[in-house]
Amino acid sequence: xxxxxxxxxxxxxxxxxxxxxxxxxxxxxxxxxxxxxxxxxxxxxxxxxxxxxxxxxxxxxxxxxxxxxxxxxxxxxxxxxxxxxxxxxxxxxxxxxxxxxxxxxxxxxxxxxxxxxxxxxxxxxxxxxxxxxxxxxxxxxxxxxxxxxxxxxxxxxxxxxxxxxxxxxxxxxxxxxxxxxxxxxxxxxxxxxxxxxxxxxxxxxxxxxxxxxxxxxxxxxxxxxxxxxxxxxxxxxxxxxxxxxxxxxxxxxxxxx
Length: 257
Hints:
CATH superfamily: Spore Coat Polysaccharide Biosynthesis Protein SpsA, Chain A
Shape: globular
Radius of gyration: 18 Å
Number of strands: 10
Helix content: 25-40%
Structural class: alpha/beta
CATH class: Alpha Beta
């Protein structure tokens, strides 16, 4: 790589007790990663709950560090608390019920090391159904750079559906915190972060699938089906206002010529 010779990537996982049964598979996918020379990973798990249930399900690994909220605070808060314990200059999302594909971390590290102007990456996703069947997505963007603001523009123009999956985000630590972390929303907290990131930094879409995205009845996105229309509208409006505020601050901070 042309960039930094090595470093640490912090993998953050928010886990609810209902998802603890999948942690062994997530851990196995981390163990299977072949890291670039000089790079290592750490795994920060944060339970959205009291701690006893998940603690009994944890795999043994000295690179793993576990903490619990003490009570249920929601996915956004749980991820932010996990990331606050991270030591790496890159922060990688891995949901407790998902599985990294071989080479996923190396591809993300390579892009962010070789392209200092890129603040974050996402990757293609393969859905993993409860039957074990896998299904790819047919409408991914082409591999390459995603200019500042383009992800938000697409989201606005396509009924609040993003063309890339925030569950695959890998982010420079400073970009994560400058963007405000995961947004304090009941759902779409990762979409809120993605839109803020897109307003501040160019990103990069990796066309090689980086994640097996598990679909099962107890996942958070499935449980959002009860949300009333007014809740969805308010959630989308909160994301829009956040991005508009960022854009306004950037315009005011740019000297006139």
